[in-house]
Amino acid sequence: MNVAVLSGKGGTGKTFVSVNLAAAAPKAIYIDCDVEEPNGYLFFNPENIVEEKITVKLPVVDHELCTGCRKCVDFCAFNALAYIGGKVKIFDEVCHSCGGCMLVCPEKAVSEKDKTIGIVQQGQSKTVTVKTGILNAGEASGIPIIKNLLQNIKNTEQQLNIIDCPPGSSCIVMESIKDADYCILVAEPTIFGLHNLKMVYELVQLFSKPFGVVLNKCSKGKNPAEEFCIKENIAILGKISFDKMLGTENSNAHIIVRQNAQYNELFTSLLGKVCKEVQHETTTGA
Amino acid sequence: MKIAIPVDENEKETGVCISFGRAPYFMFYDIETKNSEFLLNSAAESQGGAGIKAAQLLVDNRADVLLSPRCGQNAAEVLQAANIKLFKTLGTSVRENIQAFEVGKLAVLSEIHAGFHNHGGK
Amino acid sequence: MKQLLVLSGKGGTGKTTFVSAFIKLADAHAYADCDVDAPNLHLLMGQGISPEETDYYGMPKAVIDAKLCIGCNKCKSSCRFDAIVVKKGYTVDIFACEGCGVCAAICPVGAVTMQPAIAGKLKLYRQQNRIFSTAQLKMGSGTSGKLVTEVKKAMNIKMQKQDFAILDGSPGIGCPVIASLSGVDFVLIVAEPSMSGISDMKRIIQTAKIMQTPMAVTINKYDTNLSKSEEIEGFCLEENIPFIGVVPFDNRAVEAINSGNTIVDIDCVSGRAVKEVYEKLIKIL
């Protein structure tokens, strides 16, 4: 069962919820798809880490075979190629690895080489298998890393996979929720939070994903996110109160369910609710 | 000698554009004939790699010198490979910059900024 | 004319809260929201004004004409982005399509064409001589980097040369952040005193260094973890990055924001602290 945790707005508590859900389960895989700013591993401190480099393809031109026809330069939708002084010059950071230049070259002068854009690490923290994707600073897109993270995940009813998503609702978020069976939207009680919640709300509906909301950092004041959920008839899976102690523990990267019985119960019960929702979806064929 | 300058409009009294890659037009000024021509910058609409495409335009139009307030790394590589010299503009008057260049008052543009990476796709 | 960009690496540290306060303190006439994926600044600064909207076109998207398609599968096998899907015929997943044009080039019968696609909306709020540029990226779209560039361009074209411009950044270190960094004169990093916050702060600092932009750091909600705050301050000292003060956690900040005010519009501790940070920032600028 793939459960994705997203929020739209940053800082609402995606990692906090994902990490603790994974740790509260009898066994789980935690996948950190926020490859630009991964945080889950800071909490888990996984051991026995196995690392894999993630590469994309970059074109290489054989100047002996090149006749200067410029078909590659003209084809490139990203302007990653230039023709100067009788030679084709390639701009690696602009290249999107589409393979088009290689395709259109009439002389077969273009081949490809690998460029590393980041890594995927897998390790273990007690009952949780931790998979982390890390994008190298300066690289523009983490999509190939997210693809790698999710590709070999066994998705069965017994296997719980928690996918910690990046903030926002752009292409990297979409890539992260593609294979999700259920989405947990984490909302905070501010107008900023609500505005961004609406975006991911639209996103999960667009992808026809079943979903529910966890209201985080709740206090006595007005909660625009809660009001919105009630109005739109969105399932509220749980409410987590603003708790200074929790904030401190979280800032020290402690996994609260591993040290506090009350929160362990909260997350175990939340997990139970999510499983029930997923089962409900599958049995009603929704 | 042909001088290229990124400009805001395609008329003589136009000002120097703050962007090189996405300048709406380039003005080409021939020092010997004192003729000026304007070229629409097709790179401006690019999703990405605008600097590269703009520099390619200068190469294809046989510019010898570029007067610009700034230049990105990628574009600079293209220009340097083509032996086009870069000079830093002062102020926004095209006329004044050409005059300053002709009497050797403009400094070589040496602070090349890092690539903008604002390309299309993800 | 100076352009100040506020970034953080980690989400939720308080960029928009700081930016809105700075705009009030500086009486800025030019500002922009570069977080085109999840913009928030307009919720505070755009109230009561109707923006001018412009469609933003991203990369073109492939379109397959089912009547011409012969099902040879050449497009699907050459697409590097898994954007060709077989579902009642060959169709394009517009969210995955990067607009590279390979499928259109390889199709033997011309069934695939590249069509312009709207990827978002640019919004320009104008009031007297104030200019506020923002945008909303269409959900799932790419080309966020280019849209950020358009947002900045829209502001730059309309602002006066002597204006001080303030830009609200986005979380992360990828394409839109890199695009927002280009051409700015200074970056303020709003850090969060937590392990995640510090890890993210270091990565954004690394990114800003690659872009060669001068920067300073401030800590928001510093009292939620004093030892982490000290760690951040120590890091800045080691790395020779100006550290310009701290802002305490303040319940009233949320109240202010939720009522559509900045934290300097009401009397609160965070507002007063932000003012001090602002004054130190101005001295450096």
UniProtKB/TrEMBL annotation, chain A:
Residue ranges of every copy of the 4Fe-4S ferredoxin-type domain listed in the record: 57-86, 87-115
Pfam families to which the protein is assigned, alphabetical: CbiA, Fer4
PANTHER family, sorted: 4FE-4S CLUSTER CONTAINING PARA FAMILY ATPASE PROTEIN
Name recorded for this polypeptide: Iron-sulfur cluster carrier protein
Organism: bioreactor metagenome
Automatic annotation (TrEMBL), chain B:
UniProt-listed PANTHER family: DINITROGENASE IRON-MOLYBDENUM COFACTOR PROTEIN-RELATED, IRON-MOLYBDENUM PROTEIN
Domain Dinitrogenase iron-molybdenum cofactor biosynthesis stretches: 15-101
Alphabetized Pfam families for the sequence: Nitro_FeMo-Co (PF02579)
UniProt name for this protein: Dinitrogenase iron-molybdenum cofactor biosynthesis domain-containing protein
From TrEMBL, chain C:
Pfam families given in the database record: CbiA, Fer4
Entries under PROSITE patterns matching the protein: 4FE4S_FER_1 (PS00198), 4FE4S_FER_2 (PS51379)
Domain 4Fe-4S ferredoxin-type per the UniProt entry, residue ranges: 60-87, 88-117
Signal peptide start-end: none
PANTHER family xref list: 4FE-4S CLUSTER CONTAINING PARA FAMILY ATPASE PROTEIN (PTHR43534:SF1), MIND SUPERFAMILY P-LOOP ATPASE CONTAINING AN INSERTED FERREDOXIN DOMAIN (PTHR43534)
Name of the protein: Electron transport complex subunit RsxB
Organism expressing this protein natively: bioreactor metagenome
